[in-house]
Amino acid sequence: MMKAQLDERPGELTIRVCGRLAEGWVEELEHLWREARDAHPGAAVSVDLRGVTFIDHAGIELLRRMHSGGAHFLAAGLRNQEVVNQVTGGSK
Length: 92
What we know:
Layout: E1 2-9, E2 12-21, H1 26-39, E3 44-55, H2 57-68, E4 72-74, H3 78-88
Parallel strand pairs: 2-3, 3-4
Antiparallel strand pairs: 1-2
């Protein structure tokens, strides 16, 4: 199970993700991200992954698309930080 919540501030969006970022839930997060980005063009987007317990291949691919779209990530834990480093090429 995954839960995603959007926090909006002027010029800044934070998507807080909790649970498993895995097949079946990836589409839900992608939909939220695209809607938020379309509703707030030019806003900085951060994705808070500190509550994520698991990321599968589909989740990693979504994070790659989000990073390519300008998203920044907050991660905790060795595994999640490793995934973020993999997705961003080591940049935060």
